[in-house]
Amino acid sequence: MSNSNTRLIAATFAGSLSLASCVGGGSSPMTPLSQPAQTGAAHNVIAPLDNDWGGTTLSPAVKPTVVAANLENPRGIEFGPDGRLYVAEGGLGGSHSTVGQCRQVPAPTGPYLGGFTGRVSAINVMTGARTTIARNLPSNQTAAATGGFVSGVADVTFVHGTLYALISGAGCSHGLAGTFNSIDSISPSGTAIPIVNLSKFLKTHPVAHPDPDDFEPDGTWFSFVAVGHALYAVEPNHGEVDIVRPNGSINRLVDVSATQGHIVPTALAFVSSGFSGDGVKRGQFVLGNLNTFVPGSQRHAKVFRLTMHGQLDKLASGLTAVTGVAVHRGQIYALESFTGFYAPAPPVAHTGKVVRLARDGSWRTIVSGLSFPTAMTFGDGNTLYISNQGFGQPTNTSGEIVKVRVPDIRD
Asked: For labelling, which of 185, 189, 335, 361 has a CA lying 20 to 30 Å from the CA of 348?
């Protein structure tokens, strides 16, 4: 596949995670990326994988425990004031098409089909019981040539007790005419009320250096965090972090593309307490990026320091496909959706990792063996919760939440 197509799918991955054919010969259309191990030449079409452990030190193995299963493409997670874990679910896609009505996402990723199968769930982490909080939210799926992979609700968070959902599956370019990507407030009855039109903001406030070969008109919004009364949202395809307030006002914190080019930013964490390192301070952010899926791009993803004034500086590199970041007890963690290869493909389906940044700038492996994880958050103490099997699975209901007890070791 050409470099332009791998760039396209890399940034689309950040929202829709459409990956099945991003590596030439690596996976046939509609084939799940995560599947039982095979033997023989069929499983070696993209082998050999390179050694991804350079610069990374293994910590004592930590085995994840499944908290909840049968989730529908789980993405961002956040604990609510009631102690339950709230989960953004991409949904099941749909069959609506807008071909001929508006600008479409370029092939092979587009054109999309859309539906209203996205949802927000709440999980009792003690019992694993799931409760639907909001349903019938926008969801889309990519073209069959790239596997028909699904996105919808990208993330969830709370602002002073009110639940908000980041919608990434809407918009005419995603097969849903008359809709737009948004941040929605979710009422106690489950009604989703948009507070801002994110699709419109992208169209009226273009970034400095969008990639002409890789363009999503409605964006592929991936994550957001709440700080005070504001929401800070990351859009990977255009490359930006924007500030949204509950009254609907929106402005840009940083145009990542202006200084970094098309690096596909994905994950954001706010430093709310003291930090043991020299690179970031309380009141700043840690930003991670996916990077593009071109040969040699593995281990070139980074984490950055981002200030409240929009200043962006590299903290560390040596990562692959970052889909989550966290700052916990003064240490930086990154979630790698896969490792060992420059793009997602069947042989790397169980190579996802959680790593921790050491004082010497290297990364310590905390959890390994994850299958295309998409987000993480800390709960009480040192318990880390992870959205696992978030895409590329045998079915759209194969998602799960897993937890691990992270060793409290200062690296």
From this structure: 361
